[in-house]
Inverse folding.
């Protein structure tokens, strides 16, 4: 196993079912701030920073999607958790899908947000990786955050815009670039049919990075999939529309309709 010991934060009742939250490219555990308190009323919530991000180690690349899945397995093992719900956005959703397909015994129910089984063209991800290796993550921070939220939201929340740009800019260049290359090389389309975990796929209606058809394809291809398209939200839909998305996640994880 190629796993690294990722930085993680655990909240919620010790005897509750465990839910693991997996972050997007360029973000940290803070991207789940709008969800944590409500989730912790029902679940033992495990947030972690993807390798190369936040407080986690930054191994030299290249990485692949199995490396990221291995990190989650190692985290579950460290915490003594046999099986958990997994909620992931963008790169975190890709990690969750790979884990559910490859290690079905470790995943109970799955929520994927604003993600895709294959994001083309791969050249765009290699180009972004090269930019970040040459100039640091600061070079892409403004453009990345412009896709995270709708223009209306960013205009009304300049403090959020500034904070998010700071988080992207602070991401280690090797970690960011290597995770770009994970996305470039990843193709989970054949994995989807093997995912038996009940899956809720959540799309931001205004997401330019992974538009709703990506999530529709996931919901249609897994064995037990459901689609939720959320209006007035872009790529970090969970942060832009938590009043819709958080209850939907909780309902799905508890076995009900989102």
């Amino acid at each position: 196993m190629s796993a690294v010991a990722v930085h993680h934060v655990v909240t919620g009742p010790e005897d509750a079912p465990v839910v693991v939250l997996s972050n997007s490219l360029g973000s940290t555990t803070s991207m789940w701030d709008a969800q944590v308190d409500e989730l912790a009323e029902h679940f033992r919530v495990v947030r972690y920073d993807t390798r190369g991000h936040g407080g986690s180690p930054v191994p030299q690349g290249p990485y692949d999607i199995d490396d990221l899945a291995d990190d989650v397995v190692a985290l579950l093992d460290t915490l003594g958790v046999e099986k958990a719900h997994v909620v992931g956005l963008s790169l975190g959703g890709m990690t969750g899908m790979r884990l559910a397909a490859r290690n079905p015994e470790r995943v109970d129910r799955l929520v994927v947000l604003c993600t895709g089984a294959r994001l083309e063209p791969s050249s765009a991800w290699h180009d972004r990786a090269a930019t970040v290796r040459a100039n640091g993550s600061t070079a892409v921070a403004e453009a990345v955050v412009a896709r995270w939220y709708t223009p209306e939201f960013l205009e009304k929340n300049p403090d959020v815009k500034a904070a998010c740009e700071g988080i992207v800019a602070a991401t280690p260049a090797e970690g960011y670039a290597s995770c770009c290359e994970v996305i470039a090389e990843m193709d989970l389309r054949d994995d989807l049919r093997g995912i038996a975990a009940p899956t809720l796929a959540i799309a931001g209606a205004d997401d330019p990075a992974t538009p709703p058809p990506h999530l529709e394809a996931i919901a249609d291809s897994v064995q037990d999939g459901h689609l939720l398209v959320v209006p007035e939200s872009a790529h970090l839909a969970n942060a832009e529309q938590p009043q819709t998305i958080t209850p939907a996640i909780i309902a799905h994880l508890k076995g009900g309709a989102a």
